[in-house]
Amino acid sequence: MSPLKQLMAWLFGTLYIAGLPVLGQSYKYQSGPDFATVDAPILESKCLQCHNPNILKGEFSMATKEDILAAEDDFLIPGNAEDSMVHWITLPFEGEPPEMPNEGEPLSDNEAALLAEWINAGAHWPDGLVLKDVLA
Asked: Fewer CB within a 10 Å sphere, N or C end of the chain?
């Protein structure tokens, strides 16, 4: 391999490992999704109607990150959407509709993808942010 190709391979490998966009790679969420403007509205419109401090269906609230992390060990696993119940319970399975939400419209494919991106990026939740039921 020529020295130039070696340098280019090293450079792109380093940028890839660092998580920086390479050759047109999407960088929309390279620093993590903006939870307050992207994912919080999804949870507020699809989950908080039943899972808030006043209505504890399933005996848990989703109003704060602390509430969600207290729900169950596998309910939200930052960095792992596939195994996080909050994600997979919103997906259709073997032709059946998703288990959640019980009421209202299910998450769109885009909403489910955004939720998964947020979880896979570490599920950052700004300190002090409390979600509200927007349908109340």
From this structure: N
The whole-angstrom separation of Cα 38 and Cα 132 is: 15
* Lookup result for tokens 């992390």: 69
Say what the pLDDT of residue 135 is: 74
Instruction: Give the number of other Cβ atoms within 10 Å of residue 66's Cβ.
Output: 9
| pLDDT for res 14 | 47
* Cα distances (angstroms) measured from residue 19 to each of 10, 11, 31, 75, 99: 14, 12, 9, 27, 34
pTM of the predicted protein model: 0.72
**Mean pLDDT of the residues in the chain:** 81
Nearest Cα to 122, choosing from 64, 76, 60?
76
Answer yes or no: is pLDDT of 100 > 70: yes
| Cβ atoms 107, 42 nearer than 8 A | yes
Residue type, 58: G
What is the domain partition of the chain in residue ranges? 1-28, 32-136
In three-state secondary structure terms, 113 is: helix
Query: Residues 113, 29: contact at Cβ < 8 Å?
Result: no
